[in-house]
Write a structure and sequence with these properties.
The complex is a heterodimer of chains A (112) and B (111). Chain A is an all-beta fold and 112 residues long. Chain A contains no helices and eleven strands. Classes of the chains: A mainly beta (112), B mainly beta (111). At the A-B interface, strand 4, strand 5, strand 9 and strand 10 of A face strand 3 and strand 4 of B.
Chain lengths: 112, 111
């Protein structure tokens, strides 16, 4: 069966510090991978998606970047965090059948 | 932008049916209607999806109008654990199509 994991689950980071959130998917190959962000009390905003290794599409301009070094690994990064980067970050994947999106457990980021 | 319109919030008594409406008047012929829900501090969870026929699974029923411009998600016997934000999404059932989430409906199941 397929599983998706992301970590860390929570983190508190000072303004200006770097960020690295990791996501891995097991039990499938060549998935489409996604990073979403949800600010407090708000809806889900698509940040990045990837259709393959090294292929990243950005949906909104921002202080964040994404990378896909391996088929089932997706990383969200920042060189210098801003207060506005605080939120709930969700990694997700869509398999080859393409009819359902599956989400990870989420990572709570608080920038102080 | 999301292609759907949902009420921002609804209440439902525990044990009663919860009927969550969704308008998608600009839906295309090859777009499916998907429903997800998000319990606080968790990732969204798939509930059900359909094209034009009504669908039912162990979680819910999906009723799509004949003109496909609206649909209703039915939770037949709501429990307190069904309290969540429910998202209605229209999307072509294709590997390359992204899921765009709107604000959804916050369903509160009351004891």
């Amino acid at each position: 069966s397929q599983t998706i994991h992301q970590w860390p689950a929570t983190l508190v980071q000072p303004v200006g510090s770097p960020l690295s959130l990791e996501c891995t998917v097991e039990g499938t190959s060549n998935p489409n991978l996604y990073w979403y962000r949800q600010a407090a009390g708000r809806g889900l905003q698509l940040l990045f998606y990837s259709v393959g290794i090294g292929q990243i599409s950005s949906e909104v301009p921002q202080n964040l970047s994404a990378s896909r070094p391996q088929d089932r690994q997706f990383i969200l990064s920042s060189k210098k965090l801003l207060l506005s980067d605080s939120g709930f970050y969700l990694c997700a994947w869509i398999g080859q059948i393409g009819n359902t999106i599956y989400f990870g457990e989420g990572s709570w980021l608080t920038v102080v | 932008d999301a292609k759907t319109t949902q009420p921002p919030s609804m209440d439902c008594a525990e044990g009663r049916a919860a009927n969550l409406p969704c308008n998608h008047s600009t839906i295309s012929g090859n777009e499916y209607v998907y429903w997800y829900r998000q319990i606080h501090s968790q990732g969204p969870q798939y509930i059900i999806h359909g094209l034009k026929n009504n669908e039912t699974n162990e979680m819910a029923s999906l009723i799509i109008t004949e003109d496909r411009k609206s649909s209703t998600l039915i939770l037949p016997h709501a429990t307190l654990r069904d309290t969540a934000v429910y998202y209605c999404i229209v999307r072509v059932d294709n590997y390359g199509q992204n899921f765009v989430f709107g604000p959804g409906t916050r369903l509160s199941v009351l004891p």
